[in-house]
Structure formats: structure tokens, C-alpha cells
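Lab meeting, item 3. Inverse folding demo.
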């Protein structure tokens, strides 16, 4: 989707000193803000054209959720140096059309969150990497790793490469040759779909300010206008095994039509699917195992860019404290019985969505 969000994934909003995954919530948010500012600085300094736009709207499904956001926004702004503000349901029409005012109790406007065209950003950064001497081998699959005198022999379907340091960032595409990572990650499809060209006035009515809408606090569904304002772009982690584009589009339309009823009759001309690495604690993990570096589970452009920066520093500085396996990186149960594992995940995520929809005011 290309959202460069300020809230830290999984940390939520609340008491800054409350422990989340063993760390104070404020530590997660400060790390996230630093990571986002690093990526924004990289985009600016490199001159990458990626249709960068500012602003997002986090829709609150219940009155209690909205009050929690509204009551703490000033304290969070002072603590994190952000410029967020809350708006009640009767003011939602200024930010979101459709049924937003009827469905949601209010929203938090995230002024420091940005969104980009991800394909253009990745293309621009890849071009920058090539200028600095990197070789990018597209459509080349790694099929095995083998220790050798010179370091590690990386076996691929395009030939072998010997490297002193190997960093696996295979994420949701991890294969069984990397058994340690394969046991601890699961490829979950994330879907993005773009509508046919629409009247710009209609798109502007759905998104009066052009900000991206984050419409589910549990699983991160989002929607936004295309940069030229002619299409509607929907995105969400459907948490199902990969299916056909038509089925994926129908699932997204089914989710969003309560917010924008006109979605039901729209034609969608583009659909993309990418595999996100799901970990048991929904957190990114990095370290080294059997002499091979790894970094997986960092979801989103901000987290991935920051993980890459940190891993490059660890490798360049030969950081011995980072060159060990993450002890909190738990295995998935039933990983060798993938059908049963998927059934459990599908049932739990469907239940989450039903509960989430039932809580809409």
C-alpha cells in the first residue's frame, strides 16, 4: 500500500510507559519515528520520485477507542514530537466520505504519516543501489547455502555465488533450505487492488483531503486515492492462502463496501499480491544462525528500510552481539502440517474481522 506510518506496528496507543512485548510503548514509538524519518530523509536526499504525500486518518470503530485516542493525543505529541489531532464523528465528513460518519466514532489525523507509490520508490532505491555498485539479479531464486573455505556458497537457479557474508531477507518467500527461518515464518498474502478510472469528483468526495484511510485497528486495512485522483486503491492482509486475483478483489470489495457502498459496482483493473513474513509475535527478527545473517518479519516500507540499515551496520562493524540467533524468535506450531496451521489462522482472522465489524458504531 505504501503507507509510511508513525504508529509502531503492534504497539498501539496508550500509556507510554506500559510494557509491550517486553519494552515500554514509548520505546517502540520512538524507534518507529526514527525509522520513518530515516526513510523520508533517504527519499529526499536521493531525489527518488515516488509520489510522496503526507497525512493519514486512523478511524476509531468505537466511542471508547476514540476517547482513548483523543484523551492522549496532546501528551503523545509532546512526547514524540508529532502533530496528530483527533476529530469526532460529526467532523469526519471533512476527511472521509461514504458512511464513515455513521460507522466510526471519530478519528485520529496523523499529520506525520506519509504514503508513497511503492513500486516507484523501490525502483528509485534500486537505481540508487546500482549507482553505488550493487548488483541486483531479478527472477533469481536461491535454492541452497553451503559453507566453503571462502565463506558461503549461495546456490541459485542462475548459478553459484561465493560470499564472505550472507544476509537472508527472504521474508514470506523463505524456502525449506533455510530451515531455521522456515520454521519461524509463514508467508501471508497481502492484497492491493486498483479500480478502473473513475470521475475525479467522485474520488474527491470519498477522500476530501486526499489522505489515506486506515479503517481497521486490528489488521491494518487501508484505502486511498491514486496520486492523480482517478482511481481507488484498496489494500489489506486477507490472511488466506494465495488465491486468484478475482477472488482477492471480491474479498477486498466485500470488506470496504460498508464504508463506500459504490465499491460494490466498481470494476477493478489491477491486483497485486505479495507475501509478508508472519512471525508468531508479529515482530521483526534479526540475528545470525550457523554463520548466516538473517532479517525477516519487518512488515512495511518503514520497518524494512530500517531493518536493512541496521543489518548493514551490524555486518560492516562485525557486531558480535548481533551475530547470534534471536532467542525470542519462536517456531510456528504445526509448521510441518501447513494445512492445519492455515485453517487455524483463517478461522482466527475471520473471527477478528467479525468482531471488528460488530464493534463499528
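The presenter then showed the designed sequence:
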Amino acid at each position: 500500500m505504501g503507507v509510511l506510518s508513525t504508529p509502531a506496528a503492534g504497539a498501539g496507543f496508550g500509556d507510554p510507559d506500559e510494557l509491550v512485548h517486553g519494552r515500554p510503548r514509548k520505546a517502540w514509538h520512538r524507534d518507529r519515528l526514527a525509522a520513518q524519518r530515516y526513510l523520508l530523509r533517504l527519499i529526499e536526499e536521493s531525489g527518488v520520485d515516488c509520489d510522496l504525500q503526507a497525512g493519514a486518518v486512523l478511524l476509531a470503530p468505537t466511542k471508547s477507542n476514540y476517547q482513548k485516542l483523543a484523551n492522549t493525543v496532546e501528551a503523545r505529541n509532546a512526547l514524540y514530537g508529532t502533530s496528530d489531532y483527533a476529530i469526532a464523528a460529526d467532523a469526519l465528513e471533512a476527511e472521509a466520505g461514504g458512511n464513515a460518519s455513521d460507522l466510526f466514532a471519530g478519528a485520529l489525523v496523523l499529520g506525520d504519516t506519509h504514503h508513497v507509490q511503492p513500486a516507484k520508490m523501490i525502483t528509485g532505491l534500486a537505481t540508487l543501489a546500482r549507482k553505488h555498485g550493487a548488483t541486483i539479479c531479478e527472477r533469481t531464486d536461491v535454492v541452497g547455502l553451503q559453507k566453503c573455505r571462502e565463506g558461503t556458497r549461495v546456490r541459485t537457479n542462475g548459478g553459484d555465488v561465493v560470499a564472505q557474508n550472507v544476509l537472508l531477507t527472504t521474508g514470506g518467500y523463505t524456502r525449506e533450505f533455510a530451515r531455521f527461518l522456515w520454521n519461524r515464518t509463514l508467508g501471508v498474502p497481502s492484497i492491493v487492488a486498483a479500480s478502473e478510472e473513475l470521475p475525479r469528483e467522485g474520488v474527491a468526495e470519498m477522500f476530501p483531503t486526499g489522505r489515506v484511510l486506515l479503517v481497521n485497528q486490528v489488521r491494518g486495512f487501508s484505502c486511498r486515492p491514486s496520486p492523480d485522483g482517478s482511481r481507488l486503491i484498496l489494500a489489506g492482509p486477507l490472511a488466506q492462502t494465495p488465491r486468484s486475483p478475482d477472488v482477492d478483489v471480491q474479498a477486498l470489495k466485500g470488506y470496504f463496501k460498508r464504508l463506500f457502498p459504490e465499491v460494490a459496482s466498481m470494476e477493478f483493473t489491477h491486483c497485486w499480491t505479495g507475501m509478508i513474513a508472519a512471525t508468531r509475535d508479529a515482530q521483526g527478527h534479526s540475528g545470525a544462525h550457523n554463520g548466516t545473517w538473517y532479517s525477516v518479519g519487518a512488515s512495511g516500507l518503514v520497518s524494512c528500510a530500517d531493518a536493512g540499515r541496521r543489518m548493514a551496520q551490524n555486518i560492516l562493524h562485525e557486531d558480535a552481539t548481533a551475530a547470534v540467533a534471536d532467542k525470542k524468535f519462536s517456531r510456528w506450531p504445526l509448521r510441518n502440517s501447513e494445512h492445519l496451521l492455515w485453517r487455524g489462522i483463517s478461522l482466527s482472522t475471520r473471527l477478528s474481522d467479525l468482531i471488528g465489524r460488530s464493534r463499528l458504531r
